[in-house]
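Hi again,

Forgot to attach this to my earlier email, sorry! This is the prediction with guanosine-5',3'-tetraphosphate bound. I've pasted everything inline since the attachment limit keeps bouncing my files.
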Amino acid sequence: MNIQWYPGHMTKAKRAMKEDIKLIDLIIELVDSRVPLASRNPDIDELGKNKARLILLNKSDLGDERQNEAWKAYFQGKGFYVVKVDSRSGSGMKAIQAAIQEACKEKTERDRRRGIKNRPVRAMVAGIPNVGKSTFINTFAGKACAKTGNKPGVTKGNQWIRLNKTLELLDTPGILWPKFEDPNVGLCLAFIGSINDEILDKEELAAELIKNMSGRYGKRLEERYGVTLVENTAGDGEDTKKAWEILREIARARSCLLKGSELDTKKAAGFLLDDFRSGKLGRVTLEVPEV
Ligand code: G4P
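Structure tokens for the complex follow:
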């Protein structure tokens, strides 16, 4: 399954972000905890090469806690500051302030040597669409955010949300698009629902999800749908066939039937994808960091 999806306004957004980056000290990059690499755009490393960097493992409520920790260590090992957050509930927000001060220590020190006191850190939130940027800004900035609304007489352009004396946030997040050269990236983003399902074959996608989950998370599928997974045979060419068989079993278990009692695997695929995305299959991380 090869997913190609390229919005036309990508170049324009990247140009805007390049300009905005000149104004800031720190990039707060959001990634999705369930697919922390597929939900990154590597261009951000080039764009932000002289900036302090903080990665937020967002939607950590949906990622496997052991893997969240593994990914935190992975990114820390690459020199990033990292905080696990759930922007919807607000969990992890407190730890961010401390991480920001730590990430910007050099800047603060440089300011101090130049006799500049109390200049706030200016930060930009960045990430691919649907990773949770707006939710994060709303939760993190809270009421301060509302104050920046379009007021008559205020020049349009860059607005800053002043969070406190030490931090200002650019109110427009930097939007980057994922890299689709690797077909696995497209798949991962489709699994989490970041690509419009209408352009995808749901059954094929569900079969791919079953393949991906059947190793580490096979038990979850067995428990939820009462199906039996045969031993993980990934790589022997039989795994796709088996994934489709499991999808049919799910259709049977959920009584997804067409007229004439034929199995409705499309409906079953919908169930599976919804269950996965809403966390009903438990907390699942689909990418494992290389050690
Ligand atoms: P964006 O600005 O980066 O495009 O993303 P946005 O904030 O719009 O968030 C995309 C979806 O992800 C929203 O769900 C949002 O609620 C959800 N989300 C954001 N952060 C988290 C998180 O930490 N945990 C979980 N579980 N979900 C998160 P939606 O279904 O599109 O909207 P809604 O039904 O929540 O309004």
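The chain has twelve helices and seven strands. The radius of gyration is 22 Å.

That should be everything now.

G.
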